[in-house]
Amino acid sequence: MGMELVIVGGVAGGATAAARARRIDEDAHITLIERGPYVSYANCGLPYFISRDIESRSSLLLQTPAGFDARYAVKVMINTEVLELDRLGRRVRIRGAEGETWLAYDKLILSQGGSPIMPPLPGSEARHVFKLWTVPDMDRLHGYIEEEEPKTAVVVGGGFIGLEMAEAFQKRGLKTTVVELQPTVMGLMDRELGRLVGRELEENGVQVLTGVGVKSVHADAHTVELSNGQQVPADLVLFSVGVRPELTLAKNAGLTIGPSGGLLVDEHLRTSDPAIWAAGDMVEVEHKVSGKRVRVPLAGPANRQGRIAASNAMGLSVKYGGALGTSVVKIFEATAAMTGLSETAAKTAGFQVGVAVIHKDHHASYYPGGQELALAIVYDRSNGRLLGGQAFGHAGVEKRIDVLATALHGRMTVHDLAELDLSYAPPYSSANDPVNLVAFVAENDLSGFSRLITAAELRQALITDRPPRVIDVRSKKEFAQAHLAGALHVPVDELRARVKELPNDRPLVVYCRSGFRAHLALRILAQRGFDDVRNLTGGWVSLEDEGGFDIERA
Q1: Where in 271-333 does DSSP place strands (E)?
Q2: Which of 357, 512, 522, 533 is catalytic?
């Protein structure tokens, strides 16, 4: 008799676990139980069906129960709910089309994922209010758009799915508004990058309202009322405000829940019960950078966790090293991506945080078609260790973030990044890739050769009792177009001749458009007796992206 393996949850981690278990043990009896009507579907592709970038619904259905059985000899039970977990008797009580029964197991893998949070607001149960998490959710939403032909949409929540759906609705001809409670969309990213994402949405016709919540949905009037009293037209409303782990079964069975609110697992993805493993959105794992227990509800980690959980359930010994939260999102023709810790998260985790920002063409500037890339890295000032990275642009974004994710996995420093031998040809990069360049900037900061200040730090410094004096070293034309109020204008090429004009009784901050000319200016000043000078990392571009400054414009 083969081992009885039962897997609860048939999407992402669960389906991967079933296939992996079969490859390890041909004689095992494997049962995959899925509450919904579909197994092993591409849930990350659902927004792109709504946008019609993906036209074939069937292409999202990766396997059927019959196909899973034919290829992997796995018994798939769809439309079947697990009601109870009897750990002592090693069995689960299930309810399906044929009623209720008990199913025995030797080993159990839980991969129940999570469910989107639907706030209990007035009007949230109306028929034109949606979530998007499953294929039936997608079918209902697509059918409503086809049949009712709505003209306006409100997306509540400015995270990954919310932004993908804002683009999808806009492509379907709906005038779309994104409502986000946080100060910027993409709240996982730092303010400067989040504002870039918001600007891209607005440039493509999406209205972005931040720092405000939703009070109620008015079904009859087809409007959404915001917490500030504003009424926003909404023939269609989609909520995307977060994901709650599915823990009812685990909690009722007495399995240990971790500090972040996910199911606690060890490095082998084993729960507090030695016969039960878990994977996916329902579990909490170690963050590879902070070392803290976190939930990372992303498809990539879920699939890898499913593979490892199955390996260990089948008798192997494979460790899961944790997650970085590496993620990417398409916003019309632009891309935003991040990995590791943001500046905010790194400070919360207790690191001595440094930040370097560059704005650089994604390939050699002299080769046609260059697109400016905003790239920021976060590092530990005590030892130079890379802590995270964020990027935004219209080309080359995910390439750089994947390099940084690899560097984080290897616990590399900014000095290691500076030495990376990355591929170069003018259509693809520069002789020094943006990853190298941002590392150079960080190295200069750490060594004291060219110390940095972020736009956020400058904004706070300017409202203190002893604000720094700000020097704008851009050209006369650039300064005339717009500049920071109160800044002293000394073009970098005139600096040596005019150095005596500068005050030396308080800190100085120099800025240019993106940082390089300011770096040159800082080095001139540092060698002429100015010992407290900082370069605004990312320059004028970052200053405008950060926002909150007093700007004088022509």
Answers
A1: 276-278, 283-286, 293-294, 327-331
A2: 512
